[in-house]
Design a protein that fits this description.
It is a single chain. By secondary structure, the protein is α+β, with helices and mostly antiparallel strands. Helices cover 17% and strands 43% of the residues. The protein contains ten helices and 29 strands. Helix 1 packs across helix 2. It starts with a helix and ends in a 5-residue tail after the last strand.
């Protein structure tokens, strides 16, 4: 071609080149790729096929590249052409088909007692007790092979752990066996690529009977957050169960693996009593930190930028399972009718407005002694897992999330269910399962059970 309009525009007006290419439909974009190598390169550099498919909501999963391809390249390091994106598209369609038909591969890992576990886009991390020692293990999510073993220290007892794609964070405690003496907490921040401990944070906090209640750690979206309960007695001592307790969040902003800013503290509403059955749960994203409290049941919404309490939402009931992600809070509670449990109620809340978007009732047969469900959600689906069925058979329900949160939908909870997965035994309490767009992972009887919905490639 004597005059190449794309080359001319790209030289002085690259944004116009991108806008022109992004206006093309699929057929025109495919024809443009055939003009010459330079045009094909422009289309790859501008990720035009990615933007086209995103506009059609074909690929709504951010980390789908790491699952659809076994190469070590990330999406940001490669230029994908039409063939690459069609492969991604086909992978996504098979993934959706698997979720909607409950078609998955089940595999069990870990032969020791798992106390805590977490996962990011590529790894599963477990804290396992082997005798008197707590060992951290790293598992590849695709192969489910153990890749690394390490420990936080022989005298430390891990009470909480979390991770993102860059960090693994554990909170451990060590104490004196004397009433009223504060325990010593240790937060270790590991850089995942090297496994090196890059930050060790020490603190003295009140010894209490409930680790799930007193200690919580979470990391992600540039934040490291810990929750502690501190007594108002001198030196943080906790003497009586009736003592007024301070509940607080400590926050560190993490610019990168080597830059962790000074601690900020958010004081939450004081606790009148410490109840081991009512743990505090925390979820956060780039906009909000959501803290669930059970006395009285409520959600405290804190701005991540100002660290101010923006609103408090009445949770109506004690919620044994709560999750927050992408602006949505999902909670479960059991409904009491004249002291008789009749159903589990799952509620979906909007953290921005504080509105309850949907209330889903899950009636169960009367022979079930406990109607509570553990809840979680992916990009497209709401997942409910029976919390305790007294060793009776239970069912994991997969529900269409978009239908569930549709304010104009009059469909019942049963009609939102797209698939079910049967269990032969009870699951554990206190959020002992994690789910994302590719896998559902839960702990049972010294084994970690992994249901993989991602198609094999």
């Amino acid at each position: 071609m004597e005059s190449d309009i794309l080359s001319s525009l790209k030289g002085g007006y690259p944004h116009l080149t991108e806008k022109i290419l992004n206006l093309l439909d699929a057929r025109s974009l495919a024809n443009a790729e055939l003009v010459c190598r330079q045009w094909r390169s422009f289309i790859a550099d501008g990720r035009c096929w990615k933007k086209y498919l995103l506009s059609k909501k074909v690929t709504s999963i951010p980390n789908i590249f790491s699952w659809a391809e076994y190469s070590g390249d990330s999406e940001s390091e490669r230029h994908h052409n039409k063939q690459d994106w069609m492969k991604i598209h086909n992978f996504y369609q098979k993934l959706e088909d698997n979720w909607r038909s409950a078609s998955c591969r089940q595999q069990k890992i870990v032969d020791h007692q798992v106390k805590y576990f977490s996962m990011n886009t590529k790894k599963i991390f477990t804290a396992n007790y082997m005798g008197s020692h707590c060992v951290l293990q790293t598992w590849n999510r695709k192969s489910l092979h153990c890749e690394r073993n390490f420990t936080d220290g022989d005298k430390l007892k891990i009470v909480s752990m979390d991770c993102d794609d860059d960090f693994l964070v554990t909170m451990s405690i060590a104490w004196f066996n004397r009433p009223g003496i504060p325990c010593v907490s240790t937060i270790l921040v590991r850089e995942l690529q090297s496994g090196e401990v890059i930050k060790r944070i020490m603190g003295n906090y009140s010894r209490s009977c409930g680790y799930e209640t007193s200690f919580k750690i979470c990391v992600g979206h540039g934040l490291l957050i810990s929750h502690q309960v501190v007594g108002e007695q001198p030196n943080g001592r906790l003497i009586l169960q009736e003592d007024v307790l301070k509940s607080r969040l400590d926050l560190w902003r993490m610019a990168n693996v080597r830059e962790i800013e000074a601690k900020s503290t958010v004081c939450l509403v004081p606790i009148s009593k410490l109840n081991v059955l009512y743990p505090v749960r925390i979820g956060h994203d780039e906009n909000y930190i959501v803290v669930h409290r059970s006395d009285p049941p409520r959600f405290e919404i804190i701005s991540t930028s100002s660290l101010n309490l923006t609103r408090t939402i009445d949770a109506f009931d004690y919620c044994p399972s709560v999750h927050y992600k992408d602006g949505l809070i999902v909670s479960s509670s059991d409904h009491m009718d004249t002291h008789t449990r009749t159903c589990c109620i799952i509620r979906i809340w909007d953290a921005e407005t504080g509105l309850c978007l949907r209330e889903i009732q899950e009636p169960e047969p009367e022979r079930y002694s406990n109607l509570n469900h553990l809840v979680g959600f992916t990009t497209n689906y709401l997942i409910t897992v029976p919390a305790d069925l007294s060793m009776l058979k239970g069912v994991i329900k997969i529900q269409d999330l978009s239908v569930a949160i549709d304010l104009h939908s009059n469909q019942t909870s049963a009609s939102t269910v797209v698939a079910t997965l049967e269990l032969d035994w009870s699951n554990s309490w206190f959020d002992r399962f994690i789910v994302d767009d590719f896998q559902l992972v839960y702990f049972h009887d010294q084994e970690l059970v992994v249901h993989s919905f991602a198609p094999e490639v």
